[in-house]
Amino acid sequence: MLHIFAYALGVMYTPGPVNILAFSQGLQGTFRPFLRFCAGVGIAMLILFLLLGYTGQMIIGPRILPFISLAGCLYIAHLAWKVWAVRPQLGESEDKSALTLGFRDGLCMQLLNPKAFIATLPIATIQFPAAQVTGAGILLLSCVLSFLAFGAPVTYAWLGKRMGRNIENAAFMQISNRIMAAMLLYVSASMAYEQVYCPLLRA
């Protein structure tokens, strides 16, 4: 269960299009109106978690889970490398700060955001079955994870408002990226051991 939250935090709280936009909005002092946009992001993630969680439960079986887990571990490790190597340029999102963003904007943007699928697909189709999360548990955990997804742009917007433009530099976000990349790499290694190596060893 800890791996689910570690992966979710590692993916949701790294700088992406939604979080960069949230930081920019916070810098412009639009924190409270931006909460409607953040609510749309959270609902979009809930939709994805429920859709993939319940359909994935029908498709994924215990015999093929180690092989799917292996693909997921490799993908997470690849993602960790990309997060480590990225060079954020926050200034490029400043022109978006003038937009008036509401609930519908957040919902549509997150449903079309590739990073949303990066966050939900491994959790719903690999980690849920591996942790034996089924039935009502999928609904409950999806709600909790969606609240965390809501909290990601809220956090970035709050940081932008509190710390101002002095924090808007690549060095700060680079440190954040590398912390999150290390977390993702740990999750990948842990999943590979517990969900690939150990099951195949017992087989």
Question: Could you characterize what this model shows?
Answer:
This protein has helices at residues 2-12, 17-27, 31-59, 65-85, 103-111, 114-130, 136-163, 170-202. The relative contact order is 0.25. The protein contains eight helices and no strands. The chain is an all-alpha fold and 203 residues long. The radius of gyration is 17 Å and the shape is globular. Residues 92-98 have low confidence and may be disordered. Helix 3 packs parallel to helix 5 (103-111). The chain crosses the membrane at residues 34-52, 64-84, 138-159, 171-193.
What best-fitting shape do the alpha-carbon axes yield? globular
Radius of gyration: 17 Å
- Average pLDDT for all residues: 79
Q: Any idea how many domains?
A: 1
Roughly how many Å apart are the termini? 23 Å
Low-confidence segments, ≥5 residues, pLDDT <50? Answer: 92-98
User: Helix share of residues?
Assistant: over 70%
**How would a textbook summarize the main sheet?**
none
The secondary-structure class comes to mainly alpha
Strands, count: 0
What is the element string, with H for helices and E for strands? HHHHHHHH
Hey, roughly how much beta strand do the residues contain?
under 5%
What is this entry, summarized?
This protein has 203 residues and is mostly helical. It contains eight helices and no strands.
Helix-strand blueprint:
Elements: H1 2-12, H2 17-27, H3 31-59, H4 65-85, H5 103-111, H6 114-130, H7 136-163, H8 170-202
